[in-house]
Amino acid sequence: MRPLMALAGVTAAAAGLFALVADPPAAPDPPPRLERIKAAKMPAVTRPVMFDTPEADAVLAALEVFPPDNPWNTPVGDWPAHPKSDKLVASVGADKPLRYNPDMAFVLVPPDQPKVPVKLGRYAAESDPGPFPVPDTVPIEGWPAYYRRSPKLKGLTLDEVQRNTAGETGDRHALVVDPVNRLLYEFYHMHKAAGGWEAATAAAFDLKTNKLRPAGRTSADAAGLPIFPAVVRYDELKRGRVDHALRVTVRRTRKAYVYPATHHASRLTDPDLPRMGERFRLRKDFDVAGFSPEAQAILKGLKVYGMLVADNGIEWAVSVAPDPRIPNMNAELRKVKGSDFEAVVPPPGYKEPR
Fold first, then answer.
1. Contact by Cβ (8 Å): 325, 52
2. The pTM is what?
3. Helix residue spans in the chain (DSSP H)
């Protein structure tokens, strides 16, 4: 928040004029999602393109991610509150802050990207079969911004991160998007070994449909959800609002899942704990004035689309692309607390677009 400081010797009228000049009207919201996408022309994609580039911004501006009625694209600003909203919020932490997690990197590939085998491990039985269009430049979770900001890791090359020469722990997600065919490939615990790529899980999603993972099956995320559609991207922040639901982690979840999730990852049965797929929305009366334009873009999106519980992890942590062009908003977003959110449920008559 940046309140104007009073200036000694300035009349009330002059002070009011000064405030008016210093605080211009807020920029209008961007055009509706589909209108914007249809007005954009997707450039030709002839080679792998990293997410943190102007080339990727132009492609993403014209990419429709799932149909309009998909859960990630459904406005929930008017949905009713969950009857246990207060208890669900309290179980996560009413006083816990919203967190910014620069984690989910991705690469865009051309429609003729050569497919390669990926050796699947722990969750091979729940994975989609390969081969997959994985380029040599596929980024691993956190690349590059997280690594560049770490004194310990900033000297690593992408190849060293892919091979995990530093022995880093973590989920090591890898996301590959074919924007021309509108196909998505996501991997969990991905790394490059002597014999090629290896991962614990591989999940493919058709971005042209509302098809879910089979019931009871995981994806690269514990809830069985796709990750890429939920990531906050640079091009969205520049437009002024994130036009989709976000992905959020909480430390404790229930042994249950709700649409559109297909998988749980808990042994806990406390009914006051959120299920995988539980949706939280920023309260309508939360004042976003005083936040930076980038933070406002996220908060406005959370009011309209909310966020889906996708994995077990740090409380109230939303995924943002680790793009060096995106400022570190962690201190700013921490001003938002769990009590500023409410759990919501679909209104009567809502039909799941399966």
1. yes
2. 0.89
3. 12-22, 33-39, 54-61, 85-92, 145-148, 158-163, 234-239, 293-304, 330-333
Q: Using an 8 Å Cβ cutoff, are 250 and 310 in contact? A: no
DSSP structure class, residue 67: -
Pick from 293, 300, 299, 309: nearest CA to 335: 299
CA distance 122 to 198: 11
Q: What angle do CA 249, 254, 260 make, to 5 degrees?
A: 65
CA 245/CA 247 separation, integer angstroms: 7
Mean of pLDDT over the chain: 91
Q: Which amino acid is present at 334?
A: R
Q: Give, in order, the Cα–Cα distances in Å from 23 to each of 14, 19, 290, 300.
A: 14, 6, 10, 19
Q: Is 93 left (phi over 0), alpha (psi -120 to 50) or beta?
A: left
- The DSSP output letter for 205 is E
Q: Are 191 and 162 in contact (CB under 8 A)?
A: yes
Rounded Cα distance, 168 and 255, in Å = 29
Q: Report the DSSP beta bridge partners of residue 247.
A: 308
As beta bridge partners, residue 192 has: 197
Residue pointed to by tokens 């809830």: 223
Does the pLDDT at position 262 exceed 90? Answer: yes
Please count the other Cβ atoms lying within 10 Å of the Cβ belonging to residue 265: 16
> Cβ distance 132 to 118 under 8 Å?
yes
DSSP state of 142: T
Q: Is residue 125 pLDDT above 70, yes or no?
A: yes
| Percentage of the chain lying above the pLDDT 70 cut | 91
